[in-house]
Write a structure and sequence with these properties.
mainly alpha
Amino acid sequence: MANQALTGDSVKDANIRLARDLLQHPGLLAALDRNGKTGTEDGHLTKADIKSFIRSDNPLKLHSDKQLAQELLDQFGKLATGYFPRSIKLGKLDKLAMQQPTGNASQDALIHLAKELMARPELKAAMDNLFQSKRDDMISRRELQMLLKVLG
């Protein structure tokens, strides 16, 4: 639609302009395309997905899966538990996602990250084990690094 010439029809022209604007903002287009149930980009802009995006107040909602994975890797030390090899338990992310922002910027960043990850269950599952051979409800640093390579 973005490649079409303006027609003089105000409704159709508005849609053409909107399509052109969306193509100039690929991050926004990807966020609007995100399926509200799975979190994946499915190539369809539905009313439900757009409403889900608009209603979300999460500052990370425009982040790509790769950006979220990188953010989780950056915050790994704050979320990981255990000895060697340390890992992030999915249950900890679930509990964090249920919390309301506290006003503490560092803690709120973790809460927002956990909430956005919970809104993308397929990404969360890939983080648990990229190759699905062993789901252990934990995310290791190695799994995140491998996922980042796969996401390119």
